[in-house]
Each structure stands twice: as structure tokens, then as C-alpha cells.
TrEMBL record:
<keyword id="KW-1003">Cell membrane</keyword>
<dbReference type="InterPro" id="IPR000500">
    <property type="entry name" value="Connexin"/>
</dbReference>
<keyword id="KW-0812">Transmembrane</keyword>
<comment type="function">
    <text>One gap junction consists of a cluster of closely packed pairs of transmembrane channels, the connexons, through which materials of low MW diffuse from one cell to a neighboring cell.</text>
</comment>
<dbReference type="InterPro" id="IPR017990">
    <property type="entry name" value="Connexin_CS"/>
</dbReference>
<comment type="subunit">
    <text>A connexon is composed of a hexamer of connexins.</text>
</comment>
<dbReference type="InterPro" id="IPR013092">
    <property type="entry name" value="Connexin_N"/>
</dbReference>
<feature type="domain" description="Connexin cysteine-rich">
    <location>
        <begin position="156"/>
        <end position="199"/>
    </location>
</feature>
<keyword id="KW-0472">Membrane</keyword>
<dbReference type="GO" id="GO:0005243">
    <property type="term" value="F:gap junction channel activity"/>
</dbReference>
<feature type="transmembrane region" description="Helical">
    <location>
        <begin position="12"/>
        <end position="34"/>
    </location>
</feature>
<keyword id="KW-0303">Gap junction</keyword>
<protein>
    <recommendedName>
        <fullName>Gap junction protein</fullName>
    </recommendedName>
</protein>
<comment type="similarity">
    <text>Belongs to the connexin family.</text>
</comment>
<keyword id="KW-1133">Transmembrane helix</keyword>
<dbReference type="Pfam" id="PF00029">
    <property type="entry name" value="Connexin"/>
</dbReference>
<dbReference type="InterPro" id="IPR038359">
    <property type="entry name" value="Connexin_N_sf"/>
</dbReference>
Length: 199
């Protein structure tokens, strides 16, 4: 599978990073983030009875749901993994076809017609690779693609951290002051569990 190929061709640091993103981040978002933020708007209490004022203040305080933002972030961070895995899968498949042509010869439409042929090729390639010539045997190198995918992954992490800072900041305040129509004066709103949310 693509994940197996990725784990085969990535570095130890890349494998650890993958496990942290998939397991730790998803566990934190789903098991900690969702219960903490699911009642966010209900517990956002403002000291006003003006209709619509609390909703407007909440929208100013949190323009995007934290939980949805983190889910989009996690899925986006996994996109470079997916692209790299597809690239590796494609290159390995092309390499296997090329080895098949070297070992058995490709004449006309003769080639890999079924998954069974592919399995037989994988077995025969190991047995017959001495017939292919030493110049045609090489280890596939994915270091360039791996570096590019690491660059895009790091860029996405930095971009999402910057967006989170500009949308929410990194500290959740205990009190949020708001003055916006339809509020007739400055309104103080209070956030539930601000310390836990900041942590």
C-alpha cells in the first residue's frame, strides 16, 4: 500500500513525524478539542440583554470554529504525505514494469495484464535480476521528492500557525470586550474554561 511504501522510503524522523501527526494530533483534536469546544457558543456569556449582541460578539471573538479549523489543518498537513505516497507508488510501479521488460522482453502488447502477472514479476525479478545487466539495476532514490514534501509540510504548519495567531491568538482571555452594532454600548463577554483552552 501507499503507506507501506512511504514508511519504507522515508527517514526515521519522517516516520516519527507521521505517527505524531496521525495519532497524537488527531487524538488531541478529537478527544480533547471537541469536548472542550463543543459548547463554546452556549457558554459564551455577555452582560447584555440586547437581542443579537451576544451572537455578534461571539462572531468577533471566534470568526471560525476552533475545532473545525484544527480538523482542516490536520487534513491539509496530511496532503503532502498523500502526494508523496502517490509519487512513490507511481515510480515503483514504473520501475517494476521496466524490470519486467528487461527480464522478459516487451514485444508488442505483451506486458503486465493482471495483478497475478505483477506478483510473478516481483518474484522473478529477484531471481533473474542478474540477467538484466548491472548498469540497469539501481536503487530508487526519493530523497528529492521527500525533501520537497517536507518543505511543503513545514510551510503548511507555519501558515496554519500564523493564521491561528491572527484569528484567535495563542491565549484565550477570561473576558472579551465588544462594541459592535446591534450592541448599544461596550459589552463584556466571558469565556468558559479560558485557562484550559489556552493550554
Amino acid at each position: 500500500s501507499a503507506l507501506t511504501l512511504f514508511l519504507t522510503f522515508s527517514s526515521l524522523l519522517g516516520k516519527i513525524w507521521l505517527m505524531l501527526i496521525i495519532l497524537l494530533r488527531m487524538a488531541v483534536v478529537v478527544l480533547a478539542g471537541y469536548p472542550l469546544y463543543q459548547d463554546e457558543q452556549e457558554r459564551f456569556v455577555c452582560n447584555t440583554l440586547q437581542p443579537g449582541c451576544s451572537n455578534v460578539c461571539y462572531d468577533l471573538f471566534s470568526p471560525v470554529s476552533h475545532f473545525r479549523f484544527w480538523l482542516i489543518q490536520t487534513v491539509s498537513i496530511l496532503l503532502p504525505y498523500a502526494a508523496f505516497s502517490v509519487y512513490v507508488l507511481h515510480k515503483v510501479a514504473m520501475y517494476i514494469v521496466r524490470m519486467h521488460c528487461l527480464v522478459h522482453g516487451c514485444k508488442g502488447n505483451k506486458g503486465l495484464s493482471s495483478p497475478r502477472d505483477l506478483k510473478e514479476l516481483c518474484r522473478s525479478t529477484v531471481v533473474n535480476r542478474l540477467d538484466c545487466g548491472a548498469e540497469n539495476l539501481r536503487v530508487l532514490n526519493f530523497s528529492g521528492a521527500y525533501t520537497v514534501h517536507l518543505f511543503f509540510r513545514t510551510l503548511l504548519e507555519a501558515a496554519f500557525a500564523a493564521v491561528q495567531y491572527f484569528l484567535f491568538g495563542f491565549l484565550v482571555p477570561e473576558r472579551f470586550s465588544c462594541y459592535h452594532s446591534p450592541c448599544t454600548s461596550t459589552v463584556d463577554c466571558y469565556i468558559s474554561r479560558p485557562t484550559e483552552k489556552s493550554i
